[in-house]
Amino acid sequence: MTCACAEDLTPLAAALAELLVAGDVLLLSGGLGAGKTTLTQALARALEIGDDQYVSSPSFALVHEYTGRLPVVHMDLYRLDNEEDVEAAGLADFFERSAVCVVEWPDQLGGLAPEERLEILIEQNPPAARRLLLVPRGSSWQQRLKRLAAHLTRCSACPPETDTPGEGMR
User: DSSP for 125-148?
Assistant: First the structure.
């Protein structure tokens, strides 16, 4: 799917929030300024996280936690080098919590990435458009991605382009 600007990530976040359950893991990849934190902010609003809990990038804290309809754990692994750093910081333990885990810069997870997850790659296309690729990992996400695509097809802001069934959505 292609969104004209970062603010157009809101329909995706709203549709995604309807499908999320405690224990879900979202891995957000993309360059600096691609919209990873913006997507997380939109997701937080859709999950009824109040304005009193400002959602910001946890680049220096590594993790922020928020309370809403579902609890959200927001991690930023940019400053870490590898899965050993992730493990040493105790961040892999958050995947066992009854919360939605949103991870920016997930490459550092290495083998610690949960099998059931939704990977979201945000590519920035100048001047402001974003192209998103959603890749389901695990049977639960493969089923939910079909429902997400159907929902977004009805939404005109970021209509999806579908790849081979079960492999991903652009």
Answer: ETTTEEEEEEEEESHHHHHHHHHH
